[in-house]
Amino acid sequence: MPAIELTDITKSYGGPAAVGGVTLRVEDGDFMCLLGPSGCGKTTMLRMLAGLETATAGRIAIGNRVVDCPATGVFVGPEKRKLGLVFQSYALWPHMTVARNIEFGLRLRKIPAAQMRAEVAEVMEKLSIAKYADRYPSQLSGGQQQRVALARMLAVRPDVLLLDEPLSNLDAALRLEMRAELRRIHEEFRTTIVFVTHDQWEAMTLATRIAVMKDGLLQQVGTPDDIYARPANSFVARFIGNPPINMIDGAGDLGRSLGGAPLIGLRPEDIRLGHGQPATVRSVMPTGGSWMVELAVGVERLLHSTQTRPDLRAGQPVLWSIAPDHLHHFDINGSRLQRTPQLCHA
Question: What is the CATH number of the domain that holds 252?
Fold first, then answer.
């Protein structure tokens, strides 16, 4: 499969840029998630990659082939890019059976009938939908329709599979099931996948690499572990993590005791109870299999998360601590400080 290179890609509709000078490389076999809040430019990026939008400036190459470069007048249409695209709405033909939906792209490519039947049967078997071959989309559940939409794209063996929030219409149980299915599809077909989502857990559980976006700009690219453990800035730190990271003003008493950086982040699961600084329990909240404990530390509020049922009650004094290498220090502009300030203990 080819690598994808986006170089200084910009998209503007006349006002502020929807995508502002993004450079990104998607490696062969990657499961790349474009992650960010609504309006951050991730879907616009996917549409430019698919050829449904033209770039205002920059360059897009798939393999060694440039497919969009306004400066040189190059633009390759979506039908010639060898990409598969699955939308948020699955866009299945309602008057066609599952088998006919899946073979649609193969018929357009004039694949011989015997080969077409074999390829459709193979992909239906791999996605566990062979028993629905003669049903119509209206007779299928959301998860089954999702599998048909994926099968239709995989049947034509695209070089790259593009997914635009395809799980957002499913309920929680089906979303979990389809995440596992997408992981299996990626491992089995080894297709390069670019997946757009605003759901951090989808990105963290599916991606080999994540590109976090905000306001049309790339904030950080890395593995899920890298982005969680070493967020490049305070936006990424706040956006990734549930429960969310605790952010402390470095100018306050607590901030000074934690090193005195302008902004300090503490992941709830990194806080330990039993020794260290004094705090008061404000509340204990069960979340199903884990618990969140809200602590008052002077004027600050901290969330601590644990998978062990805590024997605590509101108003109870406790001691808490955090290892220095689990602190995240950011400068006044929100950028990560590479040097960890020295902790002081008043």
Answer: 2.40.50.140
